[in-house]
Amino acid sequence: MCPEQRHAFxxxxxxxNIVPQxxxxxxxxxxxxxxxxxxxxxxxxxxxxEGADVDNAPQLAVFIRGVDETFDVTExxxxxxxxxxxxxxxELFVCVEESLKKFNVDWSKLxxxxxxxxxxxxxxxxxxxxxxxxxSGLCKDTELKSVHGLIxxxxxxxxxxxxxxxxxxxxxxxxxxxxxxxxxxxxxALFSELDAQYGSLFSVGLKWLSRGMVLRRFFELLExxxxxxxxxxxxxxxLTSKDWVKDLVFLVDIMTYLNMLDISLQRRSQVxxxxxxxxxxxxxxxxxxxxxxARNNLAHFPTLKLVSENxxxxxxxxxxxxxxxxxxxxxxxxxxxxxxxxTLFSSPFSVNINNVxxxxxxEVIELQCNTILKTKYDCVGIPEFYKHLGNGYPKYxxxxxxxxxxxxxxxxxxxxxxxxxxxxxxxxCPHLKDSGVxxxxxxxxxxxxxxxx
Length: 453
Description:
By secondary structure, the protein is α/β, with parallel strands linked by helices.
């Protein structure tokens, strides 16, 4: 909050007792506001993701995203649920149920639950099952949507690209150079890139999805790195292997694309249809790359093109593109089930009326024939357009509120854990007791501004 006042806040002297008190006040105010907003939700969804809190204790972060009748969106932390190896899905469900009760939301308006899709705990899947059972019990004709978030998982890259033989050498070499020649001026750009993205803690634990620029810097300095390692009596044979270098540059190109996709998916407060469009776009690119590589057309692999000497080089990477495409299709198949509903939300004036549920067809036809609203749609786009529907189209508006409430990913949960770990290093965090840490969680991820001075 108030980043422009960061330096002013840093100079304020606060006692150990005042810090927890103020954190508690802010958190309490945020929760009061959420309780007030919860009453007005016409649709809401939740996202759940496992992580570790400031004390490295396993927690399940649960966020809520609600939409009111004016299409205003509220996205806030609902609760942090402690997890143990024996936590059952029913126990997690009871905790989530109690949290929803505190915030005055109507269970019948729960639309979807999003999980990270990579959970090692059966209890999270059991939680989803319990939520579905609760909703179906309240509304017999309603089925809770369950989706795996559209954030790219590490396993998607590590298992399907099968490029550990490249990445292991890069990590080992950089680590050795950093400990023996970090003052070498030719490597300053490489280390600057590392420090900018990962701080001084660069290690073999660096995430695959964060390696694009590091790989590119490494390739740009390949000759210098090879010379330096050889001069220190630590030659790395792979650095002069043509086949290994081709694998390196292919990885540079594909990770650049994956990095761009990952960043686009992590933008805060995105509509689920925007995220699905990004995934669909990337799948189409994979299909195009597969076709191009079969013809040894390296137009979209510029770094590979720089070192390619054989007209069959592109063929070597078709299996990896196919694996990646298959994994994307499998991993994000949940959203394919709801594609017609998503399309009705994002493209109401071009959707085929035969693909619309009978309950909504009459209203959608009326909407498609309304030239004034069509002009407004072209002008403001979604989701702003839905605020201009007034009192008409009640069934269609309800459908749109449900889609707008959906989480496209669990990134907001992952971001919370990241922020909490950063806050652990602040000078006041050690003064916070259990209640203060609980309050800090709510302050760490506010979408609503607190009404305290």
